Amino acid sequence: MSRPPSSQTTPQFHRVSERDLTEIELHSVDSINDLHRIHHEHGHKGMRPPRPAYTPSPNGNLFTYDMTAVSQRGHPVSSKWQSRLQDMLTPSSSRAYAMGCAIITLLLITVLLIFYFLVQQGGAVRMLTEALREKEAAATELSLLIQELQALRYNLTAMRTGT
User: Fold this and answer.
1) Any alpha helices (H) in the chain, and if so which ranges?
2) Do the Cβ atoms of 14 and 61 come closer than 8 Å?
3) What contacts 42, CB < 8 A, 6 or more positions away?
4) What is the C-alpha separation between 109 and 26, in angstroms, rounded?
5) Are 69 and 77 in contact (CB under 8 A)?
6) Measured in Å, how far apart are the chain's first and last C-alpha atoms?
7) Shortest CA distance to 52 belongs to which of 28, 34, 31?
């Protein structure tokens, strides 16, 4: 017999039998007597008994509030931002269209940013490749110069020993 909590503040009525009402009244009287015994210093005659947790109606139905939807002050438990978010997510044609446009715009911006960063990375890769080619060309040229120097040294050594 469990129900999901409703977010409405409409009162709910439950049929209570005469036997249950009698038990509730007897329990209330016992609780009041226990309170008077425990707190005898507050037992003034002018003191009113505590209000019951329910508001009895004339037809015998038990009147209760849905406490999950209403706080002690009578305000809804959900905060303003939750209700605004719920309002934004409720389907209405203009809101749904605007929300769809916003989502598509965000997706397009995301895709554009991804391509922008890919182009940036591509430029960096091109620069690094060019620098690597220049380094390889310089290394090749240096290798040729070293070979030429070794050949010149060999020739110079041969000339010195031949004279």
Assistant:
1) 18-38, 80-89, 93-162
2) yes
3) 36
4) 70
5) yes
6) 121
7) 28
67 neighbors 5 (Cβ within 8 angstroms): no
Q: Write the single-letter amino acid at 140.
A: T
Residues 93, 70: Cα–Cα separation, whole Å: 30
Q: How many residues does the chain have?
A: 163
pLDDT in tens, the chain (163 residues): 455 555 556 666 667 778 877 888 877 888 887 777 786 655 455 555 555 555 555 555 555 544 444 444 555 555 777 777 776 666 667 777 888 899 999 999 999 999 999 999 999 999 999 999 999 999 999 999 999 999 999 999 988 887 6
Pairwise CA distance, residues 16 & 21, whole Å: 7
For the chain, what is the largest distance between any 2 Cα atoms, rounded to a whole number of angstroms?
142
The span from the CA of 121 to the CA of 106, in Å, is: 23
d(CA 69, CA 5): 8
Q: Distance between CA 98 and CA 130 in Å, rounded? A: 48
